[in-house]
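Residues and backbone
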Amino acid sequence: MRFIRDLWTLLQRRDFRRLFAVRLTSQFGDGVFQVALASYVLFSPERAPDAAAIAGLFAVSLLPYSILGPFTGVLLDRWSRRQILFAANLTRAVLVIAVGSVVAIGNAGVPFYLAVLLTLGVNRFLLSGLSAGLPHVVERDELVMANAVTPTCGTASFLIGGGVGAGVKLIADSDLVVLGLTVVVYTAAAFLALRLRRDQLGPDLKGDEPGLAEALRSIATGLVDGGRHLKERREAALGLAAIGSLRFFFGLMTVEMILLYRNYFYGPGQLNQAFGGLAIATGAVGAGLFIAALVTPWATRVMSLHQWITLLFAAAAVVSAVPIGLYTQPALVAGGLLTGFCAQGVKISVDTLVQTRVDDVYRGRVFSLYDMIFNVGQVSAAALGAVILPDNGKSYPVLAFIVIGFAASALVYGRLSSGAAKRGDRLDRGGLPGGIRAGDQADERT
């Protein structure tokens, strides 16, 4: 299998192995931490969460990526990236201790959400630092390979961490134990970063960079410039619109699924069973993400990217109706796998569109817009879910809205992207192009 061969090739490099170990350990800790958050907010005996609580958790989890995303690059180009990896992980460990202190007191209010917000905000620097340091530990001709392999493995590590966290929660029946495990893992990741030299990951400063204040002021201008460039790159612009639609309806379905397991399939005295059931459904979604990463390169060799995206949206509409519309646990597990497959297939394809249809000098700015659209779409879905979903999550009108949304996205995107292709704005049909950064985005938008 090519993926295994590429990974084995990269692992022959000592410095890559060291950076790779930091990534896997950090993202394993992220998975454990996310389980602790979900457990405390959604599966504590003293709380019966509604859609508003879930919306708040989504906002705290995702908005740091949208707000801080455009600014991290400026700082990563001025500070030692090895030191950022060390300090970010150690800072997160300290902040998780603060989160644990709030949990021990039994407060899920402002102090808890503030501590979580700070922890996840630091995480944004960590993920960007891992990506920015990668070119310093592999050869130039191996960079595409590394960009495809390492984030996929990072996502797998995140999912494994989530599974381990869920297992610890079920065995120990304590959120504090899960948070304690998170502290240990983050601390280990911090000290693993010290195996790299202080200057090994860059930045390679030349002394002619603009001042920090000037660079920060230029960010807003850069985002505007990226938006203007997209007007001239219609296929990439349609891709960003597609990802916004995808995350909105997928996010709404996620909120519905959480409520179903928490308040519909199980009663107030069955929290461990509800948590375990949701963990299985989430694992099925993760399996769908992984399968999509294997299937999409093949699919885009036999059809164009815009045809594949259109097909996946149509498939998501069908899957949302059946089996998900049966509202049984086996149906949700099967539907979770299939919708996860569709969502990841669209994401990989849109990543490729942006990589291949946007000029290199604008690519970073366009990906910053991509990050914002991706995360704001899901937060907006959670906010809407807080208004329209019942507490038990079962709503045929909302499900119909999701089905129609996916179907309409397929219809509109298919028609507009086909028109763009006929005007000459067409990608080659030779599979995923060499400059793909799909995996590079997976850390933040899985």
